[in-house]
Design goal:
With about 450 residues, the protein is an alpha/beta fold. It has two domains: about 140 residues, Urease, subunit C, domain 1 (Roll), CATH 2.30.40; about 300 residues, Metal-dependent hydrolases (TIM Barrel, Alpha-Beta Barrel), CATH 3.20.20. The chain has 17 helices and 17 strands. Helix 10 links the parallel strand 11 and strand 12. Helix 5 runs parallel beside helix 6. The chain is globular and about 65 Å long. Bound molecules: guanine and zinc ion. Zinc ion binds next to strand 5.
Length: about 450
């Protein structure tokens, strides 16, 4: 059954860090997107598309709204939702004091499913339709996450955290159990409907050589799976890695030695990477997840986004919230913080560049740019509908906006919670926000993707 949405449309055809803006931005002031069987089948100006619609096609008209591809969050920890905004520590102490306590609750499948469902609702409320997610060391936490993703038909990536040292006993597996459990989870979930698996060694300090070896081997056994971890986030962490691996050339080399650096490897943070590490990431097509709110919250440092994306051999970078060190589910708020980080580095980040790394650029970082991240025929119909008049202040500011860029830039700076009016996943309306009360309503589609 054909259905359609109408509003202003905005998407990217190419990378604004590399290609002139006119060739990148697709903007339609009054556009229509037609969807069928979960994909976009037509799009264009309302005057072109409306006369061609099949009789009986329902058109949801979002007046004063901007329709964008659903946002993509390249690195986030769902079990840390309950510790957002935990006071007073930098990375290593924060992990010990808050994270490793919270993550111990995920042995209980019901508890895990409760948080996974809450996480899914928050994500959809922010217009995010795909995330690359760290679960905990417990396979139950992964099953819960995929089950909750399946309920909405989301294209999510996730994996069981691997840790066999430098963490509480209750959160440690072994090289063998970590391998076996990950393998079973891959067999059960990778490629099921829209779901994808990511091998998830937490970071080099919490895995022994034996576990690092086994993880690299397993990744090789299952081509098409992802690998996600953390790298060069915090100066004390980097010092620790140097002590643990005195023979490694640099932090990335630790992962490289164990066969963990390649296409579909996503490295969280990378704040303090060296040029030769960026060269290596570029060479193999590995990606960085840029986590602005987290880097500011934990005082980790100022990532050089322009430096990574505008070099002669650019690195794939996607935007990420990194909750619970990150402080918001909203990629719009995250873009606003990315701009401030750029400012502190003496650079600027345009709203178009920021939006690109939250949509098509993030899809490219995840090797999913042919499925998600832009509005085009054949793309999966995951949409975020933004209400540019969501609050009285935003409405007032929009009246003074002089261009689409000005509108978007002010919106990413103000980024109110009520910004996202509706979210569609594979063509289904899954979140709708009341314009008066700002309350979100969620709908679980009767999907046949599961
Ligand atoms: N490094 C290792 N584990 C974590 C984590 O859970 N969050 C962040 N921000 N960094 C990490
Ligand atoms: Zn993280």
């Amino acid at each position: 059954m054909q259905q359609a949405v109408r509003g202003a449309l905005l998407s990217f055809r190419a990378d604004p860090f590399e290609v002139p803006l006119e060739e990148c931005v697709y903007h339609e002031a009054d556009g229509v997107i037609v969807m069928e069987s979960g994909v976009i089948t037509a799009l264009g100006s309302a005057s072109d598309i409306l006369p061609k619609l099949e009789r009986g096609t329902v058109v949801n008209h979002y007046k004063d709204c901007l329709i964008m591809p659903g946002f993509i969050d390249c690195h986030v920890h769902y079990p840390q939702t309950e510790i957002i905004g935990a006071y007073g520590e930098q990375l290593i102490d924060w992990l010990n004091k808050y994270t490793f306590v919270a993550e111990q609750k995920y042995k209980d499948p019901d508890y895990a499913l409760g948080t996974a469902r809450l996480f899914m609702r928050e994500m959809l409320g922010a217009g995010t339709t795909t995330a690359s997610v760290f679960c905990t060391v417990e396979p139950a936490s992964v099953n819960a996450f995929f089950k909750a993703s399946e309920e909405y038909g989301l294209r999510n990536i996730a994996g069981k955290v691997l840790m066999d040292r430098n963490a509480p006993d209750a959160l440690c597996d072994t090289a063998k159990t970590g391998y076996d459990q990950s393998k079973e989870l891959i067999e059960n979930w990778h490629g099921k409907g829209r779901l994808l698996y990511s091998l998830t060694p937490r970071f080099a300090p919490t895995s022994t050589d034996e576990q690092m070896e086994a993880t690299g081997a397993l990744w090789k056994e299952f081509p098409g799976t992802y690998l996600q971890t953390h790298i060069s986030e915090n100066l004390d962490e980097i010092k620790w890695v140097k002590e643990l691996y005195p023979n490694a050339k640099n932090y990335l080399d630790v992962y490289d030695r164990f066969g963990q650096v390649g296409a579909k490897a996503v490295f969280g943070h990378g704040v303090h990477l060296e040029e030769r590490e960026l060269d290596r990431l570029s060479e193999v097509g590995a990606s960085i997840a840029h986590c602005p709110t987290s880097n500011l919250f934990l005082g980790s440092g100022l990532f050089d986004l322009q430096g990574a994306m505008k070099r002669p051999n650019p690195v794939r970078v996607g935007l990420a919230t990194d909750l619970g060190a990150g402080t918001s589910f909203s990629q719009f708020r995250t873009m606003g913080e990315a701009y401030k980080i750029a400012q502190l580095r003496g650079q600027s980040l345009s709203a178009f560049e920021a939006l690109y790394v939250a949509t098509r650029g993030a899809a490219k970082a995840l090797y999913l740019e042919n499925q998600i991240g832009s509005l085009d025929i054949g793309m999966e119909a995951d949409l975020a509908i933004l209400d540019l008049q969501a609050t009285s202040l935003l409405k007032y500011r929009m009246e003074a906006a002089e261009s689409v860029h000005d509108q978007l830039f002010a919106t990413m700076t103000l980024a109110p919670d009520a910004l996202v009016r509706a979210t569609y996943v594979a063509g289904n309306l899954v979140m709708e926000r009341d314009r008066e009360t700002h309350q979100a309503q969620y709908y679980i589609p009767a999907n046949d993707l599961a």
